[in-house]
Design a protein that fits this description.
Layout: H1 11-21, H2 29-36, E1 40-44, E2 49-51, E3 61-76, E4 79-85, E5 91-92, H3 94-99, E6 107-121, H4 122-126, H5 133-166
Antiparallel strand pairs: 1-6, 2-6, 3-4, 3-5, 3-6
């Protein structure tokens, strides 16, 4: 990973992204401070690749968009998948973060607009298991809520497209 030059990012933008991601929804103030202390901020320019198949130095880090736009492209079970992250708090690399070596998904992550992202390494979060296990628990619950929201949204899009194609329910 080649991080662009270090640029300061407003703490309010970081907190807005963290709230939108649902990762800190159940955490108290001091717990949020502990979690944000584990995050790394990276800046990238349009056209850069954050990750490419076979050449990803992110390890098992979760990616949280703060600002900008990135596109994630992958093949999952031989089906192409493209996801655009454009809203603060959008997450990428969830499977790599929680699944590690159990499920391998090779994806390319390309920056479409200059962006700032937060990286949370799984090992850093796991370092809290002995001292602050409730933080780990709440973050993982937030990840499940986020993934469930994505699944619901995609299901609604699929149903809407099906209704359009088959002219079901008289809506189209």
């Amino acid at each position: 990973m080649i991080a662009s030059e270090k640029i300061q990012i407003d703490l309010d933008k970081i907190m807005d992204a963290m709230h939108a991601s649902s990762l800190i929804a159940e955490l108290k103030g001091h717990e949020i401070d502990i979690l944000t202390g584990l995050l790394a901020v990276r800046h990238y320019r349009a056209g850069e690749f954050i990750a490419k198949p076979g050449a990803c130095s992110l390890g098992d880090a979760l990616l949280i968009l703060v600002e900008g736009q990135i596109e994630v492209s992958a093949f999952v079970e031989n089906e192409p998948l493209v996801m655009t992250l454009k809203d603060p708090g959008d997450l990428a690399r969830i499977i790599s973060f929680v699944g590690s070596n159990m499920m391998r998904i090779e994806a390319s992550i390309e920056v479409k607009e200059d962006c700032a992202v937060l990286l949370l390494e799984r090992s850093r979060l796991e370092s809290l298991l002995d001292t602050h296990r409730s933080i780990v628990y709440c973050v993982m619950r937030g990840l499940v809520r986020y993934a469930h929201g994505l699944a619901r949204h995609k299901s609604a899009e699929t149903e809407q497209m099906s209704n359009y194609f088959f002219r079901v329910n008289g809506r189209y």
